[in-house]
Design brief:
25 strands, 43% strand, disordered N terminus, 384 residues, Neuraminidase
């Protein structure tokens, strides 16, 4: 033993320092590695514009929108919405936006656009050619439905199935269609073609006789293998099966026993085994309350509640818009926080942030964005 020997005392001090460092580091919640990858694109509900950032919440940048007509001061953007972020080829965001005169409620132009994102010297930047307009023929055989006005979309990630699913609506129809993604020699998206109408979603689903509204029809997500699309129809989720030419084969009810709840905003796990979604009890007026994130196992049909009052963390209410990390182990989502500071640009709105939680609900939700009062993150899509 060398209790009083100087060398032993130095060793003890070093060991104590290392031990305390490990204890301190162990006390800091570790952000999962999966949260560091990919890009999240979203709409700021405060100013109505679109943004993208890295999966860990850093590097936020505005997505370029098409130029306004001149004089620009007389025009405005309207209804900007991220449809999806590509999971193959150069990372690209596809979005919808309308343009109208400030003095009028109507639109003078609208359409779908693609923005390729590049990493330049550690900074996330849009490609110099962005945005690229993606024009589809307005005549698709269904009166009043223009695919260029699609507000919901999803890319297929299958290597041999480079297609984008869209939902475009009229007052009486909600039409699911798919299009081929056209690329140049560098795999940059240059256009859309080969439009195939799959079905009017209203004709596939079953309305709720106790509620007079059409529910939440029209939110979709492509399966990783491109063989099916999960869609919200009325107040349920349906699995829409496709053949190799994107034609309808059939449809199965996915959430068959939901006990008076509505399910929408589905999101396929990248491994193809589960679908996450938003659910909440339907009110007599057709709305919902107390929404949470759920996940259904496609092999068994068993549903799991992912977010709860116990694990919600700072996600106080309206937990919505599930999106998976690349390894299918975590789910990102939006939620209202408990308060918004006064006298800030977005203080008049309920604050919304993006959170992350383990897919089985075994962790407490952690907050990815921290823009309370200066931005209201909504309708996000996560691409890798």
């Amino acid at each position: 033993m060398c209790l009083l020997h100087p060398s032993c005392e130095r060793s003890f001090r070093m060991l104590r320092t290392i031990t305390l460092s490990v204890m301190v580091l162990g006390a800091i919640p570790a952000r999962p590695a999966s949260a560091q990858t990919g890009v999240i694109a979203f709409q700021d509900h405060c100013n109505g514009l679109l943004y993208a950032m890295r999966g860990d919440g850093t590097g936020r940048m505005p997505l370029p929108l098409p130029p306004l007509p001149q004089p620009a001061s007389e025009y405005r953007y309207s209804g900007a919405r991220v449809l999806d972020v590509t999971t193959s080829g150069p990372l690209t965001v596809v979005y919808y936006v309308g343009i109208g005169r400030r003095a009028s409620s109507g639109l003078t132009d609208f359409g779908l656009f693609a923005v390729q994102l590049n990493e330049v010297n550690g900074v996330l930047l849009p490609d110099s050619a962005s945005p690229v307009r993606l024009t589809l023929p307005s005549d698709n055989g269904i009166v009043g439905v223009n695919p260029n006005s699609a507000r919901s979309g999803s890319f297929s990630s299958a290597e041999d199935h480079d297609r984008l699913a869209l939902v475009a609506e009229s007052e009486t129809a909600s039409v699911l269609m798919t299009v081929s993604v056209d690329r140049d020699e560098s795999s940059r998206i240059t256009g859309l073609s080969d439009l195939t109408v799959v079905a009017d979603l209203y004709s596939l689903g079953v309305p709720d006789p106790s509620v007079s509204t059409t529910g939440f029809t029209g939110t979709i997500d492509y399966s990783p293998d491109g063989s099916s699309i999960v869609a919200s129809i009325y107040h349920d989720l349906w699995m829409v099966h496709l053949d190799g030419f994107s034609h309808l084969v059939g449809a199965d009810l996915l959430t068959a026993d939901s006990n008076g709840a509505a399910e929408w905003n589905p999101s396929y796990s990248p491994d193809g085994t589960r679908v996450a979604y938003t659910a909440g009890p339907v009110t007599t007026s057709g709305g919902v309350r107390d929404t949470d994130i759920y996940s259904v196992a496609l092999g068994t049909g068993a549903s799991t509640r992912v977010t709860t009052k116990q694990n919600k963390g700072g996600a106080a209410s309206a937990r919505d818009r599930a999106m998976w990390t690349a390894n299918s182990a975590w789910i990102g989502f939006t939620a209202y926080t408990s308060s918004t500071p006064r006298k800030l640009p977005c203080s008049a709105l309920v604050n919304s942030e993006i959170f992350l939680i383990k897919a089985d609900g075994s962790s407490t939700a952690s907050q990815i964005t921290h823009t309370n009062g200066t931005s209201v993150e909504g309708s996000p899509k996560w691409g890798f």
